[in-house]
Amino acid sequence: MAAAKRRKTSRRQTPRNDAQVFLDSIAGVAASMAESRKHRVSMKLRDAATAAYSFGQTLDDLPNLRSYVEEASSAIDDLGQYIEGAEIRQMFTEARAYARQRPFLTLGAGVAAGIAASRLLAATPPGTGQRKARNGSRHA
């Protein structure tokens, strides 16, 4: 009788365990995809940091702005170095901990990223992402 109760209890917990296994496998796939692109992202960030620093060097007339640009370029370069050296799972763990510690800041950053992405998408040249039908009319 006790064994039957244990089986029923374990069956009730199985969907949650299955969901966790499924989510873990998705996270693993995402991590492996991110790992393969990590070096490229790191190099792009470090190139952006170099460009920002070079721009800051031209701001002799605006020393306060120059200081901010140099600090920003240093932070971008640090991020590039962090991405290059850290494991993807470690970054996910740290991002999750940061989001739990500062949920409103994380929410604000997500909203800002969404707005920036929508602006970038809205700024794409006309005709990009649209195709012409055979009769010449345009469809989205």
Please give the count of helices.
4
Tell me, rounded to a whole number, the average pLDDT: 78
Radius of gyration: 24 Å
Strand residues, percent: under 5%
Q: How many runs of DSSP E, i.e. beta strands?
A: 2
Helix content: over 70%
The first-to-last residue Cα distance is: 62 Å
Query: What is the approximate shape?
Result: elongated
Order of helices and strands: HHHHEE
Task: State the secondary-structure class.
Answer: mainly alpha
Strand order of the largest sheet: 1-2
Low-confidence stretches: none
Main sheet makeup = 2 strands, antiparallel
Give a structural overview.
With 140 residues, the protein is an all-alpha fold. It is 81% helix and 3% strand. The protein contains 4 helices and 2 strands. The chain has a two-stranded antiparallel ribbon. Helix 1 runs antiparallel to helix 2 and helix 3 packs across helix 4. The chain starts with a helix and ends with a strand. The mean pLDDT is 78.
List the keywords.
140 residues, mainly alpha, two-stranded antiparallel ribbon, 4 helices
Secondary structure blueprint with pairings:
Blueprint: H1 2-57, H2 63-85, H3 88-101, H4 103-122, E1 131-132, E2 138-139
Can you describe this structure in just a few lines?
Helices cover 81% and strands 3% of the residues. The protein has 140 residues and is mostly helical.
